[in-house]
Each structure stands twice: as C-alpha cells, then as structure tokens.
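User: Can you predict the 3D structure for this chain?
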Amino acid sequence: MVAPLVVESDALSAASAEAEAERLAAALPGLKVGLVHGQQRADLRDETMAAFAAGELDVLVATTVVEVGIDVPNASVMLVEDAERFGLAQLHQLRGRVGRGPHRSYCILLSDATDPLARRRLEVLRESSDGFVIAEADLALRGAGNLLGTRQSGLPPLRVASLFEPRHVALAERARELADGLVADDPGLARRPELARLRADFAAAEEEGDAA
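Assistant: Here is the predicted structure, written as structure tokens:
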C-alpha cells in the first residue's frame, strides 16, 4: 500500500503511511505489516524492505520511497491511496514494483477526486503502460511549468521566430550586430565554436528565407 503522506496532516486530507500501517495492523491481526518512508533511518528502511522481499512481512505500507530500485517478484498487488495526488510518472514507476514475477498482478488506484482533470489523468494510467505515451499525456494535461515563476518547474513559454515577420527579422539582425560588436571588442571570441555555430545558423536562415 502506498500513501502520499508520512504522517497525518491538518492541512491536507490525505492518507498517511504511519496511520495506514496502524490501521492495517489492527484490521489484519493475523498478518505482519511493515512500514517504510523517507524519514526513517536508511538502515531501518533497508531492513524492512529485506524482510518484505524475504516473505517475512505480508503487507508493506510505504510512501514513494519504493518508487524505484525495488525488486520483489512475489509482490502482486499494489494499492495507491489518494492516487490523484501523485504525478503520472510516479504512478507509472510505482506500478512497476508489482508484476515482476510469475503471478498475475494488480495495481489499484484509489481516489475520491471529482475533478474531471484528475479523473482524466488517472484514466491515462488505465489506458496505457507506455512510459512515453504517459509522459506526453501528462504534459498535455498539466501544461508546461514555469522555470522563472513561482511554480519553479518546467520551461518558460517559448516562441518560434518567423523569417516572414519583419519584427523577427529585425531582432535577428540586431542580435547579429551585437555579436559582431562583441567580437570587435574581443577578437578571441571569434574562435569560440558557439559563435561559429551561431553565425552558421544565421547564414542558413538567410538562405532559407531567400529560397522561400
């Protein structure tokens, strides 16, 4: 079982690994329940994972510390609580922790989300097991991040220059003038491969514009 939080939070209404481990231990007294999360000491975490892999634990409750690098062929069922709180890439990696052995396996995404976008994101996981398809869908549904803004992720919006737009051509010419000015001040710059490639790109763009 995978939960989005380590401990319960007053600010977030989401499942926590510690609370779920306690609940399952009480509900399943005949089974041994283990717990791993990122706030534990590494040696304790490794010891619990080794016990689970060896079959000494029946149920493992975890956070996304089990997202990668875990190989337990006997694990055949994964339940992800509040699945809408995870990224699609995370969910794709998580479900890869089951189905690694000969047993028929299941990954259950549990969510109370009513938001159409959240539901659609989870449907992507149901419809595809291709990591590239999932990544493309995630980008299409969430949009690009903002490297320079408060979101601090992804790329800023980019624009493509047009050789048929006078304003774009003027900007390109101004950029070349600035580069030539820098070379005039420091002739050593002319030998830099980056500037040589830039000059070649400008020349190719001019030829393409003339041909068009």
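The chain has a mean pLDDT of 83. The chain has seven helices and four strands.
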